[in-house]
Design goal:
Helices cover 78% and strands 0% of the residues. By secondary structure, the chain is mainly α.
């Protein structure tokens, strides 16, 4: 039987992969048919809408992630980085860019992974925030 934590983690990973494909401009047909509903996914993952999630400070979001199991933090940070990065590309929202940069940096710290695409995005975000 699948637990709530496992289900949430699966949702996070699916959202992360979907956003990654959208960021790379390689959306799958099924993804395009589903039309990512950020609010529904945010409600399933964080029990609040995307608007509520995006209105929280970085510190508040980090506190929410810290309430989860430590082994899952990297998945949350990668998903949040992708989420804010993807949304910042459309409206060049400085707050979203700053959050994406922070969550990507936290992802690299917690995962211990050397991810060149993430590092490139961080550098792109730093330039945009200057």
């Amino acid at each position: 039987m699948i637990t709530d934590k496992e289900f949430t983690l699966r949702l996070i990973r699916q959202l992360t992969q979907a956003l990654e494909k959208l960021i790379l401009d390689k959306p799958e047909e099924s993804l395009m048919q589903k039309e990512l509903d950020f609010d529904t996914l945010m409600r399933d993952i964080f029990k609040m809408s995307f608007t509520e999630v995006s209105s929280k400070t970085k510190e508040e979001m980090i506190a929410i992630v810290n309430e989860r199991q430590e082994r899952d933090h990297k998945d949350y940070y990668e998903m949040l980085g992708n989420l804010f990065y993807f949304n910042s590309r459309h409206d060049h929202n400085k707050d979203f860019q700053d959050k994406a940069k922070t969550f990507y940096e936290l992802y690299l710290q917690t995962s211990g992974i050397f991810a060149l695409p993430i590092i490139n995005r961080i550098n792109e975000l730093k330039k945009a925030l200057e």
